[in-house]
Amino acid sequence: MQAGAEAGADRGPGSEHVGPSLGADAVRHVVAQVDRALPFMTATCADSPATVWFADVLAHVRAGSDPLRPWRDALSAQMSHRHAVDVRPHVPAAFVLQWWCEVAATPIAYAAVLGPWVLAPSAAGLGLELAAGLNPHRVVVDPGQAHLVAESDRARRLERGHTAYLGLVSEVVAAYAPEVRMGSRQRWGVVSDMWDTAVRLAHGAAGEDVGPASTRVSCCFIYALPGMRVCASCPRSA
């Protein structure tokens, strides 16, 4: 991924907030609560040289480049080596788009479900770091670039969190992967599916009965890899 751009992209659609933020220390507390609930990912306020900030990616998109292509290319090469086949480009394209949205959805959804918090990082305050498998394994929230308020009504928290999530991902999603044929149902289905999945996992982390996963709108195309098959929630199995 490309990083390091000059970015005036720390605010986006849905970044308007109601009421003053609870402050950086409160953000650190909430991110720590989210981190303890995550099974496969770390949420932290500590960045590193490996952190890629959403604002930098957005700045490249606005400049007309494709900053997520290096991630897709690297994942394609890794998948091809692992499975000893030429992987069709729509597979890494789907995975990268899902992961990009998952990074934004996770801290916001978990904060809304686990406690009375609406957490809304700006694009300059949300970053990710990749594991060796090229999946995100660290979500980084800069406490000085995140708005946090208390809201007693969970439905209202989730509504406001969803707005903040869309503000973080929509512009990049709209411009995503021009070399890959991706219809609007798949593209925006990923956005919807990743939010719904994050909310469902957060409810599970809170000890609530979530039942079976509902059928997704989008497809991850994992069935196209040797030995793999469609997921239980895949729209192709509906």
Q: How would you characterize this protein structure?
A:
The chain has a single domain (24-209), classed as Transferase(Phosphotransferase), domain 1 (Orthogonal Bundle), CATH 1.10.510. It is 45% helix and 11% strand. The protein has helices at residues 24-37, 54-62, 69-83, 90-114, 154-174, 184-205; strands spanning 42-44, 52-53, 117-121, 126-130, 136-141, 146-150. The strands form two sheets. A four-stranded mixed sheet has the order 1-5-4-2. The protein has a two-stranded antiparallel ribbon with strand order 3-6. The chain starts with 23 loop residues before the first helix and ends in a 33-residue tail after the last helix. The model is unreliable at 3-15 (pLDDT under 50).
Structure summarized in a few sentences:
By secondary structure, this protein is α+β, with helices and mostly antiparallel strands. The protein has one domain (24-209): Orthogonal Bundle (Transferase(Phosphotransferase), domain 1), CATH 1.10.510. It has helices at residues 24-37, 54-62, 69-83, 90-114, 154-174, 184-205; strands at residues 42-44, 52-53, 117-121, 126-130, 136-141, 146-150.
